[in-house]
User: Which sequence fits this backbone?
């Protein structure tokens, strides 16, 4: 399977990552990708860049060396309300790509299945969000059968995160179940590296193994097809504005 984009990549602006924007772009070009998204952490993840960093993403060209650059962010789901810590200005045209993820350092309050289900339903209704990030977390399980069709109906892409199986121990079965329900409900997914160093950009092997195990249809993998990916950008982002 050939991929044309990696839309979850971190840079040195996230203090626990180790490559620059240009290094990530060079790796994406090397792998033949047409697009890459820079999605550094915000809010309560330790030592995340401040709001002015994201505001100034406007200085980054939309294309570097033939690779389209999505100026993005990985926001935190803050609790059962589904509120995310995204800068107010991002409701305009400053950001092209918004991932929302749960990180235990940012979540407040209880996180049983009911609380997590409510949170993801509310995130799904947030028009600025594009991607539901690494949602197979063991300690933040939600009602997949109920929520995944809501993601689909609100044009959210469910992420199959290749880093999860290395850094989020015990989540494989949850991720497998999510993939199976996405397949059953015709919900599009996006395969991402969640790279924190340039050599991991586009490294999708573990995610692809999971998708192969459930016989996931390629037509539902949005970044495996340039036309499908660009249609999503046109219809649900500011990128082509």
Assistant:
């Amino acid at each position: 399977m050939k991929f044309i984009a990696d839309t979850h990549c971190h840079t040195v602006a996230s203090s626990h990552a180790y490559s620059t924007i240009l290094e990530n772009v060079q790796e994406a070009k090397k792998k033949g990708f047409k697009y890459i998204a820079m999605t550094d952490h915000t809010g309560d993840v330790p030592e995340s860049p401040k709001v002015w960093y994201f505001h100034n993403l406007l200085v980054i060209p939309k294309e570097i060396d033939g690779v389209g650059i999505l100026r993005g962010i990985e926001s935190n789901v803050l609790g059962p309300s589904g509120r995310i810590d995204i800068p107010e200005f991002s409701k305009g045209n400053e950001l092209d790509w918004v991932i929302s993820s749960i990180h235990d350092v940012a979540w407040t309050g209880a996180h049983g299945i009911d609380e997590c289900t409510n949170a993801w339903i509310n995130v799904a209704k947030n028009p600025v969000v594009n991607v539901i990030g690494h949602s197979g977390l063991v300690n933040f399980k939600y009602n997949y059968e109920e929520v995944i069709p809501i993601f689909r109906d609100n044009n959210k892409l469910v992420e199959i995160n290749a880093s999860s199986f290395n850094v989020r121990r015990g989540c494989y079965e949850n991720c497998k179940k999510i993939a199976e329900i996405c397949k059953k409900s015709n919900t599009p997914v996006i395969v991402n590296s969640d790279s924190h160093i340039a050599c991991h950009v586009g490294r999708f092997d573990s995610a692809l193994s999971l998708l192969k195990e459930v016989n996931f249809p390629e037509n539902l993998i949005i970044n495996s097809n340039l036309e499908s990916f660009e249609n999503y950008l046109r219809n649900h982002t500011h990128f082509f504005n």
